[in-house]
């Protein structure tokens, strides 16, 4: 998949360097390869036109508005323009090794554009991440070394490629890196070609700049220029690849309008639009996207699909309907039906949450990830019929306390003794009391007899045991 994405991106990049508006002044000269570029450009542009269905496509702006995914438009003309094929992009700065829940909305909105017959691309900010976006930040980001940036870029590219490639019909995920055109830019050329069109008054009036200038830390010149870099990215994509819509969170408004302004002033062209979506907040106004352990990452190596699923499963009732509209592609009728059911006497608690968790986990981690999450969820339920295997137990290991005991220490040991030595319960009397109440489980099977001892067959795949006290408290015993 990553190889396919890389090949597609390479093709798109070759197309990138071929200007199609001959009457426009071409800015900042970059090295380019002439070989096959006409072919790639034709392929990219024909895919834009062929993606529009012959019948009238659904209006993406109306859909986003209906679902609570529309904050602002730079022009209302986008409502009518969105009935013909557009090309939209969203930028992702590789400042962390994984995208997180805050970035998920960008992928969802891109996916809505694709579902409505438009072309989309993702832009990795390999250059802009070196400067640091001041939007929503109270202090300057720490500088990242080239190796970290490269590693982050690779991981994020893989995630975007997996999510969009899996969830959209044609699998052609175009992912570009703005470092590819910024690395050759000379400062004097940039000041001549871009800087003289930027008004300092306008730049200082941006919300992200105003807030920082009033703060104790102030703002560096480097970060002050960020909006021009992102603005020029939009101009570059508009001029070279007919990308006419930039999307982003509401905190990106200043950076997006910097781009539409540069396009209007430098290229003297109309038809570039910005669209922002609201930031993901809970009903109490706090940010949605932080778990007890930190960010809700989209990379399964940083947050297991099981933990990701559990995060959405525990969303409060006051938020679940709104999140179903924003974070899933379910029909509005189905969501309204779920909302109606929530108000009925026979409603089974967490039914809407389960649907939310399933849909979002499937979008981010695919059927395989969802199946892993459901299997682990079921496996962790004491009394469950699911036969446990080592992989399932390991999948939940980071979420459950664990200890290591030697095979000889465990074999033939009574369950009462094991639950104390593994740290599940404080004393043998507490273990006996729980056992009598029917609350002590070995590998999800209830232990009924005080004389029960650990046998070789109890050790799952010869590697682990799962002890449970009631529904919530568990310990994994690794056999060394």
From TrEMBL:
<dbReference type="Pfam" id="PF22421">
    <property type="entry name" value="SYY_C-terminal"/>
</dbReference>
<keyword id="KW-0809">Transit peptide</keyword>
<dbReference type="GO" id="GO:0005524">
    <property type="term" value="F:ATP binding"/>
</dbReference>
<keyword id="KW-0648">Protein biosynthesis</keyword>
<comment type="function">
    <text>Catalyzes the attachment of tyrosine to tRNA(Tyr) in a two-step reaction: tyrosine is first activated by ATP to form Tyr-AMP and then transferred to the acceptor end of tRNA(Tyr).</text>
</comment>
<keyword id="KW-0436">Ligase</keyword>
<dbReference type="GO" id="GO:0005739">
    <property type="term" value="C:mitochondrion"/>
</dbReference>
<dbReference type="GO" id="GO:0006437">
    <property type="term" value="P:tyrosyl-tRNA aminoacylation"/>
</dbReference>
<dbReference type="InterPro" id="IPR001412">
    <property type="entry name" value="aa-tRNA-synth_I_CS"/>
</dbReference>
<comment type="similarity">
    <text>Belongs to the class-I aminoacyl-tRNA synthetase family.</text>
</comment>
<dbReference type="InterPro" id="IPR036986">
    <property type="entry name" value="S4_RNA-bd_sf"/>
</dbReference>
<feature type="domain" description="RNA-binding S4">
    <location>
        <begin position="414"/>
        <end position="471"/>
    </location>
</feature>
<keyword id="KW-0067">ATP-binding</keyword>
<keyword id="KW-0547">Nucleotide-binding</keyword>
<dbReference type="InterPro" id="IPR002942">
    <property type="entry name" value="S4_RNA-bd"/>
</dbReference>
<dbReference type="InterPro" id="IPR002305">
    <property type="entry name" value="aa-tRNA-synth_Ic"/>
</dbReference>
<dbReference type="GO" id="GO:0048608">
    <property type="term" value="P:reproductive structure development"/>
</dbReference>
<dbReference type="GO" id="GO:0003723">
    <property type="term" value="F:RNA binding"/>
</dbReference>
<dbReference type="GO" id="GO:0004831">
    <property type="term" value="F:tyrosine-tRNA ligase activity"/>
</dbReference>
<dbReference type="GO" id="GO:0009570">
    <property type="term" value="C:chloroplast stroma"/>
</dbReference>
<feature type="region of interest" description="Disordered">
    <location>
        <begin position="131"/>
        <end position="152"/>
    </location>
</feature>
<dbReference type="InterPro" id="IPR024107">
    <property type="entry name" value="Tyr-tRNA-ligase_bac_1"/>
</dbReference>
<dbReference type="GO" id="GO:0005829">
    <property type="term" value="C:cytosol"/>
</dbReference>
<keyword id="KW-0496">Mitochondrion</keyword>
<dbReference type="GO" id="GO:0009791">
    <property type="term" value="P:post-embryonic development"/>
</dbReference>
<keyword id="KW-0030">Aminoacyl-tRNA synthetase</keyword>
<protein>
    <recommendedName>
        <fullName>Tyrosine--tRNA ligase</fullName>
        <ecNumber>6.1.1.1</ecNumber>
    </recommendedName>
</protein>
<dbReference type="InterPro" id="IPR024088">
    <property type="entry name" value="Tyr-tRNA-ligase_bac-type"/>
</dbReference>
<dbReference type="InterPro" id="IPR014729">
    <property type="entry name" value="Rossmann-like_a/b/a_fold"/>
</dbReference>
<dbReference type="InterPro" id="IPR054608">
    <property type="entry name" value="SYY-like_C"/>
</dbReference>
<dbReference type="InterPro" id="IPR002307">
    <property type="entry name" value="Tyr-tRNA-ligase"/>
</dbReference>
<dbReference type="Pfam" id="PF00579">
    <property type="entry name" value="tRNA-synt_1b"/>
</dbReference>
<keyword id="KW-0694">RNA-binding</keyword>
């Amino acid at each position: 998949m990553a190889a396919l994405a890389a090949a597609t991106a390479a093709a798109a990049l070759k197309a990138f360097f071929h200007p199609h508006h001959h009457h426009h002044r071409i800015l900042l000269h970059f090295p380019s390869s002439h070989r096959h570029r006409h072919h790639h450009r034709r392929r990219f542009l024909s895919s834009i036109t062929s993606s529009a269905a012959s019948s009238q496509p659904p209006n993406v702006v109306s859909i986003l508005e209906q679902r609570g995914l529309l904050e602002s438009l730079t022009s209302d003309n986008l409502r009518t323009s969105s009935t013909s094929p557009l090309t939209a992009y969203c930028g992702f700065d590789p400042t962390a090794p994984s995208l997180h829940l805050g970035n998920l909305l960008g992928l969802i909105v891109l996916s809505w554009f694709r579902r409505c017959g438009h072309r989309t691309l993702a832009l990795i900010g390999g250059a802009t991440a070196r400067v640091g976006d001041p939007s929503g930040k109270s202090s300057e980001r720490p500088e990242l070394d080239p190796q970290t940036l490269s590693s982050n870029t690779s991981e994020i590219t893989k995630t975007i490629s997996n999510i969009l490639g899996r969830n959209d019909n044609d699998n052609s995920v175009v992912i570009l890196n703005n470092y590819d055109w910024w690395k050759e830019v000379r400062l004097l050329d940039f000041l001549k070609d871009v800087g003289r069109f930027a008004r300092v008054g306008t730049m200082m009036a941006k919300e992200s700049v105003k807030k920082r200038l009033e703060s104790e830390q102030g703002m560096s010149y480097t970060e002050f220029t960020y909006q021009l870099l992102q603005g020029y990215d939009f101009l570059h994509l508009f001029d070279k690849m007919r990308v006419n819509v930039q999307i982003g969170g509401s905190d990106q408004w200043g950076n997006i309008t910097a781009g539409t302004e540069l396009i209007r002033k430098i290229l003297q062209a109309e038809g570039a639009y910005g669209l922002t979506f609201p930031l993901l907040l809970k009903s109490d106004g706090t940010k949605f996207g932080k778990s007890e352990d930190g960010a809700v990452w989209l990379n399964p190596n940083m947050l297991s699909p099981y933990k990701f699923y559990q995060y959405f499963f525990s969303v409060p009732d006051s938020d679940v309907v709104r999140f179903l509209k924003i974070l899933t592609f379910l029909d509005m009728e189905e969501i309204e039906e779920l909302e109606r059911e929530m108000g009925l006497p026979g409603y089974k608690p967490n039914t809407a949450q389960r649907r939310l968790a399933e849909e979002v986990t499937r979008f981010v981690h695919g059927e395989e990830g969802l199946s892993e999450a459901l299997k682990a969820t079921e496996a962790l339920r004491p009394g469950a019929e699911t036969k446990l295997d080592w992989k399932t137990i390991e999948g939940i290991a980071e979420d459950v306390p664990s200890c290591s005991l030697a095979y000889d220490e465990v074999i033939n040991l009574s369950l009462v003794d094991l639950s104390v030595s593994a740290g599940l319960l404080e004393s043998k009397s507490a273990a006996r009391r729980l056992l009598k109440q029917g609350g002590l489980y070995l590998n999800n099977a209830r232990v009924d007899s005080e004389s029960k001892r650990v046998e070789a067959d109890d050790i799952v795949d010869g590697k682990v045991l799962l002890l449970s006290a009631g529904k919530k408290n568990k310990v994994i015993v690794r056999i060394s």
